[in-house]
Write a structure and sequence with these properties.
Structural class: alpha/beta
Order of helices and strands: HHHHHHEHHEHEHEHEEHEHHEHEEEHEH
Number of strands: 12
Shape: globular
Helix content: 25-40%
Strand content: 5-15%
Number of helices: 17
Length: 441
């Protein structure tokens, strides 16, 4: 294998590819899998005395920069990176030009480099299955032009606002998701943020988090913008991860929404990180943006104080009635454009989960296989994603069998103990009593 970085880099990548293939053949479910807590950068774990940006090959923070990178000087998080294909150092000081250069590499070269990096940090056969449930649909005051849940064009989309689901209904959906093989359960509410709806509904969501977490599943929510107090309460309730996508580049963002700005997104991500919750943040391609905007999105994520725990990459599903569905300049990206984004994300954020999200139902097994080879290792399972169609569970089962994939266990198999907080337990019990008919035992 001869890559653009020269003979030595080519031999290194080839060796990594051979090791990756060997792992596929061996099917070692534990190979290359760091513990869930280790996959979270220091800024997520919140351990005292650890330096941001100093993370070794296995995601362990706290190593002196000189030891991890062979000696450097300058800013915190600045590291020597001899080859993007090396994957031996996690860095947060990428320049936009460096990421653009990676993104623009010949696609075959890019995929091979990404596969080598992926094999250094994960078992490439393992793919996480996540289930996403809309617990509160429609009526959102935000103006995201890709979203069918905005109240601004509800007449055009025909989507009616619904009330927040009750605790037991959500729990039953989580049980079914677990039975179907999902190890992460994600709950989305069409809110600007919990502050919009008041404490009672937010308290119900906290109960949902604790009860689902008690099943041994990873739990993620996406509820809009958070205050520090709300983020802290979600952490205590047992939340594993919080989704808040940056969507696109800072430059293109004003074309996506007018009801908030890019800094609002980054502010919530900071509050989530400070609370010790894993950050889930990615974006959408196919909204009329230029390739440079896709690079800008990845640059934003790769230069956060700590890389997101997971990076969902969506392709736009243009819902009839939304402004983007009417925009003639919006064209669906090709599968290979998606592969290019996945591979670039894998190289610049080596230890993050990269999730194939909305739009996956338009991909063939072969196209998804390319995405997995390029570093994707998580999917959303189930026939609906919030308000858009998704791949059916049975079809995913056939794909896993055809590609030789296995389900990545929750918390990387560590199964950390969790006890529902007393306050939440009392609230859950009261909710159960309210659901019982009069006179029921």
């Amino acid at each position: 294998v001869m890559l653009s970085t020269g003979r030595s880099a080519g031999r290194a990548v080839a060796g990594s590819i051979r090791a990756t293939v060997a792992r596929f053949r061996a099917g070692d479910a534990m190979a290359g899998r760091p513990a869930f807590s280790a996959a979270l950068p220091a800024a997520h774990r919140g351990r005292p005395g650890e330096r941001k940006g100093a993370v070794d090959t296995h995601g362990r923070a706290g190593q002196p920069l000189a030891a991890s990178a062979g000696g450097v000087g300058g800013l915190v998080g600045s590291v020597r990176h001899s080859s993007a294909a090396n994957g031996s150092v996690i860095r947060t000081n990428w320049t936009r030009e460096q990421i653009q250069e990676i993104y623009d590499r010949p696609l075959m070269t890019l995929i091979l480099e990404a596969a080598a990096v992926h094999g250094r940090h994960f078992n490439p056969r393992e793919v996480q299955k996540s289930t996403l449930l809309s617990i509160k649909t429609g009526g959102c005051p935000e103006t995201c032009t890709y979203c069918s849940q905005s109240s601004s064009w509800s007449k055009e989309t025909g989507l009616k606002a619904e009330k927040l689901m009750d605790l037991d209904s959500v729990f039953q959906m989580a049980l079914r998701a677990k039975e179907s093989g999902s190890t992460r359960f994600c709950m989305g509410a069409a809110w600007r943020g919990p502050s919009q709806v008041g404490p009672k509904q937010f308290e119900r969501v906290l109960d949902m988090v604790s009860k689902v977490r008690g099943l041994g599943m990873e739990v993620c929510t996406t509820l809009g913008m958070l205050t520090k107090e709300q983020a802290d309460k979600l952490k205590v309730a047992g939340l594993s991860c919080y989704n808040h996508n940056v969507d696109t580049s800072p430059e293109y963002y004003p074309k996506v929404t007018s009801s908030r700005n890019y800094d609002d997104r980054l502010d919530t991500l900071e509050k989530v990180r400070d609370a010790g919750i894993g950050v889930c943040s990615g974006g959408i391609i196919g909204m009329g943006e230029a390739p440079e905007d896709r690079v800008g999105m990845l640059h934003t994520l790769a230069t956060l104080p700590a890389h997101p725990e997971s990076v969902p990459i969506n392709t736009l599903v243009a819902v009839e009635g939304t402004p983007m569905a009417k925009d003639p300049g919006v064209q669906a990206p090709t599968a290979l454009e998606l592969v290019r984004c996945v591979a670039t994300a894998r190289i610049v954020m080596p230890a993050s989960m990269v999730r194939l999200s909305a739009g996956r139902n338009s991909l063939s097994y072969a196209e998804q296989c390319l995405c997995f080879l390029a570093g994707a290792n998580s999917i959303f399972a189930g026939d609906t994603l919030l308000t858009t169609p998704n791949v059916e569970v049975d079809d995913d089962a056939r794909m896993f069998e055809a590609l030789g994939l296995v389900i990545k266990p929750a918390f990387d198999g560590a199964d950390p103990s969790f006890e529902i907080p007393k306050e939440r337990q009392e609230s859950i019990e009261l909710a159960g009593l309210r659901l019982k008919p009069c006179g029921a035992q």
